[in-house]
Write a structure and sequence with these properties.
Two copies of one chain form a homodimer. With 251 residues, chain A is α+β, with helices and mostly antiparallel strands. Helices cover 48% and strands 18% of the residues of chain A. Chain A is built from nine helices and ten strands. In chain A, the strands form three sheets. Chain A has a four-stranded antiparallel β-sheet. In chain A, strand 9 and strand 10 form a beta hairpin. In chain A, helix 6 crosses helix 8, helix 6 packs across helix 9 and helix 7 packs across helix 8. The first copy, chain A, starts with a helix and ends in a 13-residue tail after the last helix. At the A-B interface, strand 5, helix 3, helix 4 and helix 5 of A face strand 5, helix 3, helix 4 and helix 5 of B. The first copy, chain A, binds a DNA duplex (30 and 30 nucleotides) through helix 8.
DNA sequence: CGCTGCCTTGACACGCCTCAACGAGCGTGG
DNA sequence: CCACGCTCGTTGAGGCGTGTCAAGGCAGCG
């Protein structure tokens, strides 16, 4: 009774996440919006903590997050884990696989998420027939790339507190762009250990850094909720410049 | 007398770098090869240490390295610099700008380099009319993205010596793919300070790490030349797995 | 009720950074 | 031709930022 209707609602709201992100940066023709909506029709829920696709896989499906949270990650020989991207609603998981043919990393859900599975041939057809949409998808992967560059700078050249603050700022802006902010707060279903793998520090030091940021009144992260009392202040502390996200500008 | 002929030779050899890279991963139709060769016709030398394009620029030209070396970099407010990518022959500098519209980082040459400048409208036209080539260019930017992910893991989870060794391995494989290796040696026009900005360490520690790697007989870097007496041994030490470069496989 | 994650705290070690000084190579100008 | 100044590589000393190890508390859950 309830399940079906809720899913329908979410899907509807969802077509939004991707389209909304794209529209914040470019104008989309009505028929393109329709085509994107059509793409998102077959969505399904996936439990948290499941692998959507693993390193080495070569199956042809492309995944898109409509609701929830997922991450890209790699595991090192010594068992250390590195989370190299967070995927929020509107983000493609693996456009890679449609073009590169094989995954060089894995993707897992962090919580129960609504995921679209797009057959590879649909993407192939899209590239063949719809240059405007191809461009839009390419835009998505270039924004991902820009985000990676910023993470690299973050990891290489910023001290722990600033690095973590920068991460919270980025997520704030990305969630804002797809309407997933709740006031000055957002939902982030990560343990401290997982957060550690995102910002490249040990679990212990992640804990201490979080305390430091809370003590300074910049940001708090408790019970899977991030609270940012003053975004501008946090952004200044983090030296955060949202330009690399390419949101809210004309193409 | 000599200059012109040399340039001609290089350009010819050059069309190679991009095409060779692509062909290592996919089959190209003859007409696509011809089109790519045509793209590379107007190449020019640029001195070392020059910015090809700066952060915030929105001019429409896309650059391609045919010969030489360039890098992507960002400067932080406190003056620290982070080099987020090295561009070897066959690499595009800023496909970004054709799709995203604005640069979120800068690009500079590291030595005298042969650079192709492709007007934006040529790229636009290509996306509109030639899906196979569009796919090839997209492939390039996805490989760049995969490389960034690996750099992120490198920076976040590997100790200094292994990190640097991993970097030398990557460059070895990339240069091999475009035929720029000289035996077990390759040319790398970087100062230790610039190398430090690549691997995210201080100049002093870069120096000490280089000494350690040399002492162990794994790799040496002197007078702009990297020598790798045994690649397999170095790769094992670095935990290097070239899969993420997506060279030498079928698409 | 006892398990099992997860968060938290303390103590300690070490990797890496910073500051500082010196030497080698090299182009420049006297 | 040599003196100078520059950049770059090298080395030493000292400090601090983070990692590691270990133990205890708390909540959720079977």
């Amino acid at each position: 009774l309830k399940g079906g209707a809720v899913i329908e609602m979410d899907v509807k709201q969802q077509g939004n996440a991707l389209i909304r992100k794209l529209q914040s940066a470019m104008r989309l023709a009505d028929e393109d919006v329709a085509r994107l909506t059509e793409l998102c029709r077959e969505a399904a829920f996936v439990e948290g903590g499941r692998d959507l696709i693993g390193e080495g896989d070569a199956t042809g499906n492309v995944h898109l997050v409509l609701e929830g949270l997922a991450c890209r990650y790699k595991i090192l020989p010594d068992g250390k884990r590195s989370i190299v991207a967070l995927l929020v609603p509107g983000d493609f998981c693996d456009l890679n696989i449609a073009i590169l043919g094989r995954m060089d990393h894995s993707i897992a859900t962090m919580e129960r998420s609504l995921i679209v599975r797009i057959p590879r041939h649909v993407i192939d057809n899209l590239i063949e027939e719809h240059p405007r949409l191809t461009r839009a998808l390419w835009w998505c992967s270039l924004v991902d790339e820009a985000t990676l560059r910023e993470w690299l700078v973050n990891l290489g050249r910023r001290p722990a507190a600033r690095r973590m603050a920068h991460f919270f700022c980025e997520l704030y802006k990305r969630l804002e762009a797809v309407g997933r902010l709740e006031g000055d707060t957002y939902h982030l279903p990560l343990s401290q250990g997982q957060l550690a793998d995102v910002v490249g520090m040990s679990g212990v030091h992640t804990n201490r850094t979080l305390q430091e940021l809370r003590r300074k009144g910049l940001v708090s992260f408790e019970r899977n909720t991030v609270s940012i009392p003053g975004f501008v202040r946090l952004a200044r502390f983090a030296e955060f410049d949202p330009g690399y996200l390419h949101l809210g500008e004309a193409s």
